[in-house]
Amino acid sequence: MRELLIALMLVVAFMAGGTQVEANEEAAKPNPVVKELKKVVEKVTKAATEVASETEFVLTPEEFEKCRVIYFDRCAGCHGVLRKGATGPDLTPNQMKRKGNKKLRDFIWFGTGGGMPGWGKMGTITREETDLLVKYIQNEPPVPPQWDMKKVKGSWKVIIPPEERPTKPEHDRDVDNMFAVILRDAGQIAIIDGDTKEVVSTIDSGYAVHIVRMSMSGRYVYSIGRDGKATMIDLWMKKPDTVAEIRCSLDARSIDVSKFKGYEDKLAVVGGYWPPQFVILDGATLEPIKIVSTLGFTYDTEEFHPEPRVASIVASHFAPEWVLNIKETGQVWLVDYSSPSNPGIKMIEAERFLHDGGWDSTKRYFLVAANARNKIAVIDAKEKKLAALVETGGIKPHPGRGANWVDPEFGPVWASGHIGDSVVSVIGTDPENHPDSAWKVVRTIKSLSSGNLFIKTHPNSKWVWLDTPLSKKSKYRTTVAVYDKANMAAGVFKEIKLADYGKAVHMEYNKAGDEVWISIWGNLGDAEKGKAGEIVVMDDKTLEVKTRIPNLLTPTGKFNVYNTVHDLY
Ligand code: DHE
């Protein structure tokens, strides 16, 4: 800055002399020296202005670090570590500078109609943090390091080797009706007995732990944290605990197991957000077997993408394969794990940006949200191809794993709600017996509000449940809606307000399908007031509250062993 100002002063001084020279010349002839000097002045002034405006975005190292953590926690999932955009738009500095501070502040504070939560309005971040983030996103994003096999292996720990583990359950509880509950902001997993509702064990897990899946036998729980740390919990232990752990990447959201006949409990796989890669693990010890990068080219324009993240993963029942959804490139990879050190990969062109999804009731078709294009891609796991792309008619479909039931008019259907719209799209899934409805939206049902994340039902239930934790209206964040499967056209059957704090998020049935568990996700800081969270157990027959499991630290996802193993939703 100082150098630029000196340069500017020198040029101005030189120009003053130039003006005198000019006066002595013939008036008609423009002086070429002065012309050149004017250009130099313009250039220097522009550079000085740029430097001045850039100083507005300067953050102290402490502020930068604070923003890096907030960005990782709240923004990277949708916008990407490199901020190239995915579910949310591109946040690279040039794009951001064009928007201006006020607009950026409003986006972060109030959110957008397209599904971005109002982080400030919801009380997640303060005014001061909002202002810092406005500056942060106008700076270049820090590029995190790579995480190769040496580092993966270095993080691997077997806490209890298989030969030292119990040979049968050391308790009388029904393992099939146990629940693994994510205590998100505590970085823990609670194991809860579904019959007695006792919290049997609370186990440390990864940072901002995200989901769990179960081994095919139902004995092991595999969790994944946002820091890429996978933990393996043995439910046969008197007090279930971690038997192995490993860090497969630095940022991750998905994990699954081998489910095909003959491969039960043999393997696991972790999908990485950063670095963009997946790691195949031994199912009994988590020993890493193979690491594969997902770097590549977008399916349609074939442009290189530096951050194609692994979103949802499901295990095929038709072949020893995982279905990996590569978010940014819009490809579905069928990964053949029959020879895990030499995995086969079939790449299927689908749509952008692939996120979450689940099986239809036959488990032949996998339906996954392509949320940038408001579509659901349907993958046929038997024929190993794209069966259809369904336009949902809503903004940002977000099914979780979706919900399956038999519609009285259209036969077997699967449904998704939306983050950016107050509609549920019901899609026909039976091309054999109901070809006219297959892969079409057969019903569009009004929901209470936009900001829906999950939908759930059970084959034994007559209801479909829908949450709206990201609603712009605070009352809907703690309310769930219930629909009657036999009369979806009537819209919401019952609206149930569950709490006066936090967010009501994610439903899960018990094994019998007669209870629905719903999390109230509060603030970790409100634990002393008893408002960090709880689970509300609903009676699925009466739609009344059956009981509450209190004093849980920020519960989000809940996974019943039997339903997760058998993909019941
Ligand atoms: Fe999730 C599933 C990614 C925010 C709770 N979430 C998924 C899946 C993906 C994903 C790819 C599918 C996993 C699978 O099936 O293998 N989630 C992301 C994000 O990128 C995002 C949008 C932003 C982020 O920064 O992480 C995000 N997710 C959230 C939340 O804010 C939730 C509500 C609480 C939390 O963990 O922070 C949340 N996501 C869940 C849950 C599931 C999930 C409970 C599993 C649903 C199921 O029933 O299977």
Features:
Cytochrome Bc1 Complex, Chain D, domain 2, electron transfer activity, 9 helices, signal, 569 residues, disordered N terminus, Cyt_c-like_dom_sf, single chain, 35 strands
SSE layout and pairing:
Layout: H1 2-24, H2 32-55, H3 61-79, H4 93-99, H5 101-110, H6 127-136, H7 149-154, E1 157-158, E2 178-183, E3 188-193, E4 199-204, E5 211-214, E6 220-224, E7 229-234, E8 241-247, E9 251-257, E10 267-274, E11 277-282, E12 288-293, E13 296-297, E14 304-305, E15 310-315, E16 321-326, E17 331-336, E18 344-349, E19 354-359, E20 365-370, E21 375-380, E22 385-391, E23 403-407, E24 411-416, E25 423-428, E26 441-446, E27 455-456, E28 463-467, H8 474-477, E29 479-484, E30 494-497, E31 503-509, E32 515-521, E33 533-539, E34 545-549, E35 555-560, H9 561-565
Antiparallel strand pairs: 1-8, 2-3, 2-35, 3-4, 5-6, 6-7, 7-8, 9-10, 10-11, 11-12, 13-14, 15-16, 16-17, 17-18, 19-20, 20-21, 21-22, 23-24, 24-25, 25-26, 27-28, 28-29, 29-30, 31-32, 32-33, 33-34
Helix pairs in contact: 1-2, 3-6, 5-6
